[in-house]
């Protein structure tokens, strides 16, 4: 698929771009300059079912308005086996042109099937608009494979008795305090954290 630059608001559609999608028979091609110079179709996979309130719908509408010769096929895939479906699709070379996913381990898992967008999305735009999602220079390992589309909140629960038994008198509020608290909890014979996942896709990974 040929990568083509779009305006920043519309670029939010590009959550991640696959580098070898042969499942789409008419991936967009650039024939000149300007909004009307791109034609074809894009298949976009969303994590989970879609409804009328989907945040992606207005993005797709705006994208198709800017590029009237491009058709976007927005597909809501079941969340319970989304990554298994995506893995099978990209390995077979029939993956979607654009797909959504959680960051962390999953992002690394599919990185080899994705296009590096570093030269398509200006670093200063990423830093200015989404600084909280990126490292200090606006990127991870100098490569950008997607842009954030949503944000969520994570919380941690704790057992008051476990902390009390470990001699912890106050709840940690910084990473250093959490480190020190965990050391005391482990020393007291308990497991400190039951959070995250083995592949590194946990929110605090």
Question: What attributes does this structure have?
Answer:
205 residues; D-Maltodextrin-Binding Protein, domain 2; four-stranded mixed β-sheet; 4 strands
What does this structure look like?
- This protein is of the alpha/beta class and 205 residues long.
- The chain folds into two domains: 8-133, Periplasmic binding protein-like II (D-Maltodextrin-Binding Protein, domain 2, 3-Layer(aba) Sandwich), CATH 3.40.190; 155-194, no CATH class.
- It has seven helices and four strands.
- Strands 1, 2, 3 and 4 form a four-stranded mixed β-sheet that branches.
- Helix 2 links the parallel strand 2 (38-47) and strand 3.
- The longest helix is centred in the last third of the chain and has 13 residues, at 175-187.
- The radius of gyration is 21 Å and the shape is elongated.
């Amino acid at each position: 698929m040929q990568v083509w630059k779009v305006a920043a608001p519309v670029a939010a559609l590009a959550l991640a771009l696959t580098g070898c999608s042969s499942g789409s028979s008419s991936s967009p091609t650039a024939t000149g300059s300007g909004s009307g110079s791109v034609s074809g179709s894009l298949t976009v996979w969303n994590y989970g079912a879609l409804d009328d309130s989907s945040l992606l719908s207005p993005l797709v509408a705006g994208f198709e308005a800017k590029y009237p010769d491009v058709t976007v096929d927005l597909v809501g895939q079941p969340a319970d086996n989304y990554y298994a479906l995506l893995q099978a699709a990209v390995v077979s070379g029939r993956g979607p042109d654009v797909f959504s996913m959680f960051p962390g381990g999953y992002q690394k898992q599919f990185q080899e099937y994705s296009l590096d967008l570093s030269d398509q999305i200006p670093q200063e735009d990423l830093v200015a608009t989404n600084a909280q999602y990126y490292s200090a220079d606006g990127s991870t390992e100098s490569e950008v494979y997607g842009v954030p589309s949503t944000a969520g909140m994570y919380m941690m629960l704790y057992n008051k008795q476990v902390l009390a038994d470990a001699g912890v008198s106050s709840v940690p509020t910084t990473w250093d305090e959490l480190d020190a608290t965990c050391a005391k909890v482990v020393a007291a014979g308990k497991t400190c954290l039951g959070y995250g996942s083995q592949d590194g896709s946990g929110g605090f990974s």
